What does this fold into?
Amino acid sequence: MKPSDSEQLEHLGSHFDAIRETQAESARVDARRAEQVDQARRFAEALARNAAQAANDKAREAPTALTSVAVGVPRARWDAAMVAEREFVSELACTLRLPVRSTETLIAESRTLMNELPATRAALQDGSITYRHAQAIMDQAWSLPTEALAGFEEALLKSAPHLTVANLRYKARIMRERLHPESITARHQKSVADRKVIFEPEADGMASLHWFDSAEKVKAGYDRLTVVGMSLQGPDEGRTLTQLRADVFDDLILNGVTATGVGKGIRGSVHVTVPVMTLLGHSEEPGHLEGYGPIDPDTARDIAARAPSFIRILTHPETEAVLSVGRTRYKVPKELRQYLQVRDETCRYPGCRRAATQCEIDHTLDWQFGGLTEHDNLAHLCPADHALKSETRWTYVHLPDGTLKWTSPTGRTFISEPATMIRASRRTPAKAVKPMRPGDSGEPAPF
It folds into this structure.
């Protein structure tokens, strides 16, 4: 017998029920993760306090001894608390495959759910809200005084299970304005310091540029793009207003100057790797735009045709690129810098996307300990991760293909692959062995 319409709808409803239960289970997992992250944070902080106390006790016992504040790190600039914090955050970031900033946010969110917003965590635990709902509440709660949190949380959680994240975020923003003791003017003046522009790669050879600034400036900028775009419309103009806004923005950013002429003659630069057969028109293999990824061969050829100069990097062992100057000099020569920039593209700490042009070149095995100035003992590290390598117990070694194998303070390993595989040398890579430190003899460590 064929099922009736009501039976079929009931069966469809059971699918929706199953989906809803899966979503609730996901929320319960997020609540459990928040608890685990906060437990780990408190454990790391306790270890740091114990290590600092042990260091202080030893210093009192032997006041003339050369004792580092951060146990186990020679000539340390960071104290034990800083070492423990950076080691904890960085290893959690690698464990979850998250950027460091995102990991710091997760730690702050977990701490908030466990300590300041227990009702929100309870709603997450029973599956009545999702983690994104919880984030919408936390985003507004962080700037409220402690005494206002309970009322703020209670008011929102009454309707949160029935609202979309966008609607909850809007309601939370209004509720925050009502409860915040500080004027919106004062808060805005503080927030202006957070203005930024963010580049985001997208699919199919596209990308986005996000501008975060004062609302009146962003709105005025958008309105200007709209007005200029509308002025270009006409019977012979085939572009939509949306396309015109993008093209006007393109012209202003890439070719425009300020009223005082600042920026005139300044142009951005890009590095594009183009396979030689693609360049000659014999292949349709994509080019590679540094900091983005694959681009279509026509665009790659067009950029190459207008390029003022080329850097030749061959994959043959007989390459003419300078790959090593051994112990003859510490400073990395220009040709080797170019090679490393193309190989790395970004900071080589796992998960970091800081452009190589904004990084420092690190000797894996430090120069003062016999490290060579050669391609398999050099890697780009951003200032923050360079300091992490110098100040904490993180270490890494080069593998023959340019991959870096990082070892965390707890002994777990993480991999950082080069952006471009370049077979250039058969030299055995230098092994990064840190010198003996005070903490290596069995002294307590911060984490």
Remarks:
- The first helix runs from residue 5 to 61.
- Residues 128 and 322 are 61 Å apart (CA to CA).
